[in-house]
Amino acid sequence: MATNSSDLPKTRSVTSNLDELFLGNVYDATVVRRLLSYVYVYRSTFFVALIGVIFYIAAVVAQPLIIAWGIDGFIAPDPGETRWGNLRTVSLIFLFDVLVMGISQYIQFRALARLSTRLLFDLRRDMFNHLQGQSATFFERNEVGRLMSRVQNDVLALQEFTEISVPTLADILMLAVIAVTLFVTDFNLALVAVGPIPLMVITMAIWQRKAKPTFLRIRTAISSVNGNLQEGITGVRVTQSMNRQNRNLRKFDTLNTEHRDAAIKGGFLSGMLMPPIEVISMASVALVVVVGGQQVLNGTLELGILTAFILYLLRFFEPIRAMTMQFTQFQKAMASGARIFELLDIEPDLVDAPDAKQMPPINGKIEFKNVSFEYVPGLPVLNDISLTIEPGESVAFVGLTGAGKTTLVSLVQRLYDVTSGQVLIDGVDVRSVTRASLAGQMSSVLQEPFLYSEAVSANIKFNHVNVSEKSVINSATAVGAHDFISKLPTGYSSILEQRGANLSMGQRALVSMARAIVADPRILILDEATANMDSETEYQLQEALKEVLHGRTSLLIAHRLSTITSADKIVVLEHGKIVEVGKHEQLIANKSVYSKLYAMNFGEPIR
Ligand SMILES: Nc1ncnc2c1ncn2[C@@H]1O[C@H](COP(=O)(O)OP(=O)(O)OP(=O)(O)O)[C@@H](O)[C@H]1O
Ligand SMILES: [Mg+2]
Predict the structure, then answer these.
(1) Bigger pLDDT: 601 or 316?
(2) Which DSSP string do the residues of 228-294 spell out, in sequence order?
(3) Cα–Cα dist 568/395, whole Å
(4) Which of 152, 153, 337, 544 is most exposed by smallest CB count within 10 Å?
(5) Distance of CA 516 from the midpoint of ligand 2 (Å)
(6) Contact 539/607 with Cβ under 8 angstroms?
(7) Would you say the CATH fold of 449-517 matches that of 23-186+334-349?
(8) Nearest CA to ligand 1 atom 28
(9) pLDDT tens for each residue of 68-104
(10) Pocket of ligand 1 contains residue 327 by CB under 6 Å
(11) Which protein residue's CA is at the shortest distance from atom 22 of ligand 1?
(12) Does residue 128 sit in helix, strand or coil?
């Protein structure tokens, strides 16, 4: 049934474009919590990264202290008589410290790379699987582009976030440790050193406010460029045949120019931030040199401590700068995370009942009992359909376009649930058995054949991987596809390019027809399977079908196929209602709806 629960929530956005407009907070507790549940699986790796971080910070913070120790202990007291031995010890300790720093940084990066790649893997897998479990309704309502962007871009943004999050945490920790060290070493000098920080914070806040619209503009522009690019490439055949390239290029140019201009402005803004921050941090260093230098001259401060102070300060402003640059990345990641988890939280609206059983081997009886169906609540597409199809019968559904033929047969496969009434197979309600056990026993060839970019034989075997090559060839022969497949460069092992782009539409239909019968299904559904074939191929197929349909329950939808005329039963649909049921001759003799349709649509002579 069509419910709104299968929609991606549209409160924030209506289209994918607007989706991009949504800039989240820098910190979104829900997203971080959900993300942590993914990290939890790899907690040991995370722990390793954390240990790396701690050792790294300890090593970095120790450096100025070691230098101060060297200066105050062995250089400053008696410059004339340098105590080489002691200084050498200091140097060795310093070297050791640097080694610890390097190794811990390596460990940290390695662990983080492992963690974030696995996270990405898990998230993509979950999303793919989650999407596969959604109903047909879901995909009708959500654009492919939007879904793709979530699985690709949003996951990537979240991965980047994971990668920078630990270094940022490390930065914050380092900031705190350095600040504490500064104040413990010399409280007054520390006050002088952090004096310019409020100025820095104000500068960054102003910059953020000014820059935000521009970064938003860049993202909107790039998503328009990408959208246009995708459309342009997908529709290139139509474009070329209608000679619309120039117009498309002009449109692309407009969007691309907008992106370029926004990006230039963004670059300009990024360039604007660094100099003031740099000046302020260096001003802070200069202040410390002046005030601290005075103290050294007065003899109230040791030279080594001053040196350590300056080194700390240089380190101190580094994380601040880094975090400024990562600000927008954080925002983006939080927005992406929110979108990802939003998608993962959508409950599939067609699920197996909790007590669903396996469908027993199908005999082939199909019953529609007072079936009504609506895609959109309040707009009935099928109206009180009751019909019984005996095992082995072939039934043709005819009716004008939009009459509800495709909808009716898709209820047999339970692509949708009925709005009211029941669909029974061998007396079993399709909702009471698992979808897998049901789908495994029937096959369909749909209005638009879908082939995978795999070998022809793999396309015919499809999910029945254990089917023998012989059966593959038999099926292809039965539907009349063997000849053209044999003529392909490497026959059955030829790879289909771009989902079958190297085959004609009719050939694609034949391959999917072979696929439909390869596992010998009890129920076969052919929806306009012959729509793209020339009359010659169709005629051959029709001959083959007599054999193929024999002994199976088959539901046929066709506008032209003359197989209709030999169907056991013809069901005429009009506006979602059954208006006539009977055999061809009967219905023609009645001179009613079918005979008119026949005259209009299937006006070919009966062969
Ligand atoms: N996914 C959908 N969401 C909403 N309405 C739909 C959807 N699919 C079909 N419809 C509507 O349901 C009605 C029946 O469509 P259906 O595809 O069953 O017709 P059909 O008889 O197979 O037509 P055709 O001969 O053109 O294939 C149409 O009015 C159509 O607009
Ligand atoms: Mg149809």
Answers:
(1) 316
(2) HHHHHHHTHHHHHHTT-HHHHHHHHHHHHHHHHHHHHHHHHHHHHHHHHHHHHHHHHHHHHHHHHHH
(3) 6
(4) 152
(5) 18
(6) yes
(7) no
(8) 402
(9) 888 888 777 765 565 677 788 889 999 999 999 999 9
(10) no
(11) 406
(12) helix
What does the alpha-carbon distance between residue 332 and residue 236 come to, in Å, rounded to a whole number? 32
CATH code for residues 23-186+334-349: 1.20.1560.10
| Pocket of ligand 1 contains residue 381 by CB under 6 Å | yes
Name the residue of 371, 406, 413 whose CB sits within 8 Å of the most ligand 1 atoms, as the mutation to test its pocket.
406
Among 211-220, 430-439, 539-548, name the most confident range: 430-439
Assigned token pair, 534: 């020339």
3-state secondary structure 368-407: EEEEEEEEECCEEEEEEEEEEECCCCEEEEECCCCCCHHH
Q: Looking at residue 346, what DSSP letter applies?
A: P
Write the DSSP assignment of 420-455 as a string of letters: EEEEEETTEEGGGB-HHHHHTTEEEE-SS----SSB
**Phi and psi of 379, rounded to 5°?**
-120, 85
**Residue 378 dihedral angles phi and psi, to the nearest 5°:** 95, -10
Within 13 Å of residue 525, how many CA atoms lie on the same side as its CB?
20
Fold observed for domain 449-517: Rossmann fold (3.40.50)
For atom 31 of ligand 1, which residue has the closest CA?
A: 402
Mean pLDDT of the residues in the chain: 83
| Closest ligand, as measured to the CA of 407 | 1
Amino acid symbol at 442: M
What confidence tens digit (pLDDT) does each residue in 98-145 have? 999 999 999 998 998 898 889 889 988 999 999 888 888 888 777 676
Structure tokens at 433: 């058995």
Per-residue pLDDT tens over the stretch 387-434? 999 999 999 998 888 899 999 999 998 889 999 999 999 999 999 999
Closest ligand, as measured to the CA of 373: 1
Q: Where are the domains of the chain?
A: 23-186+334-349, 188-300, 363-441+521-607, 449-517
CATH 3.40.50.620 is right for the domain spanning 363-441+521-607:
no
The amino acid that residue 531 corresponds to is: A
